[in-house]
Design a protein that fits this description.
It contains two helices and four strands. With 143 residues, it is α+β, with helices and mostly antiparallel strands. A four-stranded mixed beta sheet has the order 2-1-4-3. It starts with 66 loop residues before the first helix and ends in a 5-residue tail after the last strand.
Length: 143
Amino acid sequence: MCCWPFVDVVLEDPPPKKEEAKEFHLVSDKLNLVPLQPAPTYQAPAPIYYAGHPIPEPAKIWYGSTKAEVDAQNAALAQGAGAYTPMNLVPANPGAGQQFWCKELNDCYTLRTMTDIETSCQPGSWHTSSVGYPYFVRKPPAT
């Protein structure tokens, strides 16, 4: 059995509703009825051109600097501000006893605390590994 059997159903009209008598009381014989009007809108008038008057030219469009010009301006600003000057970046706010890798003068790596690096490992400079951790490289003292 693949389908449900269908039966025609005939519906009758619902019984008519009984209308109730409505009473109205006249409150005033002077009603002030105002027809509805659309809300006022503003539309700017179109300019009127007369024969002999010149039609104004459209405003000049300025597109701005090209990417190469902006890059050159940014490079000049960076050079003037000293952005290309090398500087020594030091890890900020290391915890008490925080240890960092230190590349010694004989190219061996040791773990040293920040206090030890600042006091006994100078001169040197901080670098960042390819993975992202900071390490200190000692340099021989100037003689």
